[in-house]
Amino acid sequence: MRPQQEIVIDLLPEEAWWGGVVNDGIRMPFPPGCEMKRDLNGHLAYNQGAPLLLSNKGGYVWSEEPFRFVLMDGQLRITGTAELIRSGRCGDSLREGYLHASQTFFPSSGNAPDRKFFNVPQYNTWM
Predict the structure, then answer these.
(1) pLDDT tens figures, 89-124
(2) What are the φ/ψ torsions at residue 97 (nearest 5 degrees)?
(3) Whole-angstrom Cα distance, residue 86 to residue 62?
(4) Where is 8: in which H helix or E strand?
């Protein structure tokens, strides 16, 4: 088992965060002063999630594996596999943080999806 680590990020004034679980989308961004807890390794609220958090102040948290996060008392606390968690700030906006994270951690391959995804009906029975 890999060692777990807690990373504590002190929030900037008026910093809000997005990410984690799809079902939490109606609550995003998580505003300053809110309390939010989520374990991406087991509780995805019966939907989908991603180990990526982004802030409106250029903050980002990314991991190749799920992690737990707690947003409260002016801090974002991340607990997960020590060597896999990456966090930082790039620029001072949601856009800049996202562009940095996506280009660094999950860059586009440059390949488009198969044309069938656009030319024929797609069915989804669970929506």
Answers:
(1) 999 999 999 999 999 999 999 999 899 888 988 777
(2) -65, -45
(3) 5
(4) strand 4-10
Q: How many domains would you assign to the chain?
A: 1
Residue 113 counted as domain residue: no
**CATH number of the domain to which 54 belongs:** 2.60.40.1760
| β-bridge mates for residue 87, sequence order | 61
Is residue 60 one of the residues assigned to a domain?
yes
pLDDT tens, position by position, 6-44: 999 999 999 999 998 888 889 999 988 889 999 988 777
Residues 17/97, Cβ–Cβ less than 8 Å: no
Q: Assign 82 a pLDDT band (cuts: 50, 70, 90).
A: confident
Is 99 within the bounds of a domain? yes
The structure tokens listed for 31 are 């505003």
Q: What's the whole-model pTM score?
A: 0.84
* Contact between residue 93 and residue 58 where contact means Cβ atoms under 8 Å apart: yes
Report residue 8 as tokens.
């504590």
